Each structure stands twice: as C-alpha cells, then as structure tokens.
Amino acid sequence: MENPLLLFPQLNISASKDKSYYKVMKPTIKEEPHKASKSGAKQKRNRLSLLLQKPEFHENDHHGKAGNLAKAASVSPEEAVKWGESFDNLLSEKAGLDAFTKFLKTEFSEENIEFWIACEDYKKSKTAHELLPKAKTIFETFIQKDAPKEVNLDFHTKEVTSHNIHQPLITTFDAAQNTVYRLMEQDSYPRFLRSDPYLSLVKGRNPSRPTLRRRSRSFTVNDFQGVRPDFTVW
Q1: Is residue 67 included in any domain, yes or no?
Q2: What positions does the domain RGS occupy (predicted)?
C-alpha cells in the first residue's frame, strides 16, 4: 500500500491535529467566563448575606410586635412609673417618647406623634427664614387633604391652619398640635398604660416576654379622664 502522503500531497496532518486540539480545548476556553460569572454571583450573594446580618437593616422589621415597644435594660421600673403619672412625663423622656411612638405604630396611628414632634421642632426655629420651608413641609405631610400622614383635625382648626400657612409664625400650628395632643392623651395614652409591655416595665420584667394577665372589662376613654393609675396594685 502506497504512502498516503504521496497520493494526497495537499493533506496537512499537522493542521488536522491542530483542529482536533482546538476542538478539545474549545470547551475549556468557554468555561472561563462561566466560572467568572459564577464567582461574581457568589460574591454578590456573600455581600447580600453580610448586609442582611447588619442590625440597621432589620431595625423596622418588628415595629408591629408588642414585645419590642421598649428595652427593659434601659428603663427602670421607677422611670416607667413616672410615665404613668402624666402624659407630659411620658413625652418629656426620650425613652418614654420612643416607647409610646412604637406603641402607636402597632395601632397604625404614629402620624399623631410624628406631627407633634414636627411641631416641637418647628417652634425651635431661630429665624423667620426657617419657618416657611418647615411650615410647608408640615402642612403638606400632615394637614392638607389627602396628605400622606394626615392627622385628624376638626374643620375649624384645619381651616385656620391652612389660612395661616401663607405667612407662618411660631404659633401657626399651635391649635392643631393641641388638638392632636388631647386626642393622644385621652385615647392612645390610656391604652398604652394598659399594654403588656408597659406593665412589664413597671414590674421590672423584660417586655420581650409577654406576661399572662387576668382578663378585665374593657375601659373607655371616659374611665381614664381625671384618673391617675394606681401602681401599688401591680
């Protein structure tokens, strides 16, 4: 049998070998970007996992849970008792204000305390130049019709406030703030004093562990008007 190279001089065996080698190596070359992509995805997952572990990422996750209304480690029973002596005492303490704000969030009425806080900040304005932008923000957020956090005001108070907003003064929101204050004092505040987390603070227990209490009759707002809680029975 004759040598095939003599019969087919144009046949290039080395080229054929190169082609075969290319076919073998080709999948390996294609895998590199795929590996890089998988590596990048893994890194992203790792970064996301680290982010989810950060406390600040979850700070709003449990606002609706009654067990997170306050931290027993930072509030003594004596301090909690003072919160029950008057609504002013509760709001004047940062821990009390925070606890009450979280309680209102469980009732989906946090716009009331947020409005009250905004008015307190507004009254601290040092120049007339600061009043207009602050007044506009407060009005658009809490008072105007269909505002994102509209508070419950009577018609007269809303009309007067809306009229005064064009030339705002330090006292522009006083009537509206007083109305919302009375609403919280007579409605939300008594319920806060009856809440399990508050009662746990008074007793010096961790509010994250709800306590079992004997069921009592439902109280109305009128039951609490002019009445001071008697903490000696707790």
Answers
A1: no
A2: 86-202
